[in-house]
Amino acid sequence: MPASSVQDLSNSESRPLLPKSEPSKALPPPEHKKSGWVRPIIYILLVALVGFIGWRVYSNKKKNEANTANQANALLNRPVPVQAVAAERRPMPIYLTALGTVTPYYSVTVKARVNGQLDKVNFTEGQEVKAGQTIMVIDPKPYQAALDQAKGTLAHDQALLKNAQAEFVRYKALFDAGVVSKEQLDLQQSNFGQYEGAIKSDEAAIETAQLQLDWCSIQSPISGKIGLRLVDPGNIITANTTNLVIVNQLQPIAVYFTLPQNYLPQVLDKLRSDQRLPAEAFDKGDTTRLTSGQLLTTDNQIDTTTGTAKLKAVFDNKDEKLFPNQFVNIHLVMEQRNSALVVPSAAIQTGSQGTFVWVVQEQPVTPQSGQTAQPAQQKNGDPQPTTEWVAKMQPVKIALAEGQLTILDSGPNAGQKVVVDGADRLRQDAKVVVSAPRQHSNASGPQTDATAPVPQQPGQGTPGVATPAPMTAHQLERADPKKHRKQAADPSAAQPKGNQP
Length: 501
Hints:
By secondary structure, the protein is α+β, with helices and mostly antiparallel strands. Helix content is 30%, strand content 32%. It contains seven helices and 20 strands. A six-stranded antiparallel β-barrel has the order 2-9-12-11-10-13. A hairpin with a 4-residue loop joins β11 (289-303) and β12. The longest helix is centred in the first third of the chain and has 40 residues, at 38-77. It starts with a helix and ends in a 12-residue tail after the last helix.
């Protein structure tokens, strides 16, 4: 047997015998489901859902914007509270302003004219003194002794003079008789002349001693108010060195102030023509008038470092409202306008359209858009307001601003109310609620007309308060829906008990 056959037999014997597999059956063909129309429907539903969500978001956004716009419109339509006063015509001065310093009309620093010990002080600090009144006394004993000594010397020299005169008379008689020589007579005449000179010197010494004795009593050189003493009794005073006290004359009193050199020509013209210019002194805040006086003169030169000229005004100061070294504002009146249009300076506004003021006017009530005009009488019997206050922009032309008041060349009519507080929230034709400005105390006197309370208008319940803008039915319902529905259902419920029959 061939080797290849034997090898095949051995291989066949070593292989395990596998069972015969059944013939595979063919798989049934896949069933085709009827789903071709479901998928588009799902897509359509998803697109519709996304579109609905987007529409809701968009509608909610529009609704919120509409609500915001309605709220903003309601805020715009809400009356703005303002304070207003009436413009007026009245006499007003046109003046130049300057900062000045109060200075005593006369001021004297009292010093001793002799040395010695301060013995007495004859004044009370701060009192009024008269010129020539004794205010201090220095110990006079040394000067009294010097005066007595000078008087003794004069008596001695007078005796010598009398003897020399007698000797001269005798020698003259002897000379005439030819007994004595001419030289002896001239000697006696010379002695007589020396004693005459000594007498005159003694008299001068007495006057000097008397003057020094008088200077021991220190007198006020001027009338005025005396200040605090600078030396107490018992101290040694040095002549012309030690300051004892200061005396200032306050009635009248002077104020020195400066003006730019550009104003000097018109001031000098006024001085030459009128010989006087009224001047008013105001406090440091330039709000309260202290006293009135007049311009006295100007300095004779201009300060080159500042380009200003110094002026001096004099005030009677009867009530002593001016005090030395006090800073005041001087109003130098250059002109008096008899009928000037005046408004408070707080009413002046500035914008892109120029300078203007807000004026408030009363006009008939205008119903809001979409609403019909309300009847003059509501169902509950309360009268419906027929007028409202609105703000109007009024251009003005300023002539001069003087402190808290401004003079206008053109602007609102006299009597028209201008807004002084609350103007920052106003717009053209905005509804407003007008009230009077708050009252402030003024030390200069009664309140001026430009700051007086607004007079009561027809239909107002409170003086100085204007009738607020009326609220429509929609606004009433928004403000208090329950109360509005209750009044609509039962108008008699809104009647006050006092009005019920």
